[in-house]
Amino acid sequence: MAPHSAFRSLLLVSFSVFLTVALGVGLPAILNASMRTVQGKAVFITGCDSGFGRALAKHLHELGFTVFAGCLLKDDGGEGAKELEEFRSDRMNVVQLDVCSDEQVNRAVDDVKRKLADSEKGLWAVVNNAGVSTFGEVEFTSMDTYKQVSEVNLWGTIRVTKAVLPLIRRAKGRVVNLASMYGRMGNIMRSSYCISKYGVEAFSDCLRYEMKAWGVKVSVIEPGNFIAATGILTRDVVASTANKLWKEAPSQVKEDYGKAHFDQHVALMRSYCNSGQKDVAPVLDAITDAIRSKHPYTRYTPQEPHWWIRMQLMTHLPGAVSDFLYF
């Protein structure tokens, strides 16, 4: 009976993986087709000071879209905002945007409405890209850190989406949310980040169901490791974060875990500096397809093969098996 049960479980897992590949990749690829023209279509992107956001703003502008690039540091003379403003194009509009501020979000959306060629036709797409990342074991991570990470990554995504949805609905457009492979699987040292990205995944699913009646497509982008491409994690960042974690940790936690254990995990994070993919193109291509395709995917996974395989195993295998394999 036991061998039969094991074989049945293996068969179910294999079939589940097959459906994931066939329906998640094969079917959309057959149905997929891009819009013939982007003329007059506008896209609002958050987090354009650096990384994916800044690169995406340039890329979509080059394709002919009108871009509204939200930058946190525009009013402070940030280099990313300055670089985009130097385009001096009526299709590149840089707006001050802190996604944690209701006032700034509403002001930015008002600015978008004023500058749209025809606000009655709405806004074609919003890309919720703004995000922050950090690390630390649960007992070393303060409640303030948990709140700060989710305030940007999750509540910021929801705040911006709600503000622009009336415009997106008029256009029967697109909502594209940047999550992460860590929105589908957890990892040590990354609980505050994972929580926020799991939330983005859930929000996107619920929104997709509701927006179907309006003809609005909702897609999630789940990037893998792009540390080398974005420079989001440096040795200086690791050092400053580690110092803060140790300094703010309760004395009982420091005593129980010990400095050797703490330093070992910090060294693990340091080893990730300059790792991963060196080119943001796979992420830009995924977002662009979500915006332009007539039948966009529900989820895009621009990831290195070993991370994609790990994500499939951790989301399809029983937890006891995936825990044994990876932890």
TrEMBL record:
Pfam families listed in its UniProt record:
adh_short (PF00106)
Query: Source taxonomy lineage?
Result: Eukaryota, Metazoa, Chordata, Craniata, Vertebrata
- Signal peptide as annotated in the record: 1-24
* Keyword presence, Cell wall biogenesis/degradation: no
Q: Which GO molecular function annotations are given, in alphabetical order?
A: oxidoreductase activity
| Key words, A-Z | Oxidoreductase, Signal
Q: Which organism is it from?
A: Takifugu flavidus (sansaifugu)
Q: Which family does it belong to?
A: Belongs to the short-chain dehydrogenases/reductases (SDR) family.
Q: Under what name is this protein listed? A: D-beta-hydroxybutyrate dehydrogenase, mitochondrial
Please cite one Gene Ontology biological process associated with this protein.
steroid metabolic process
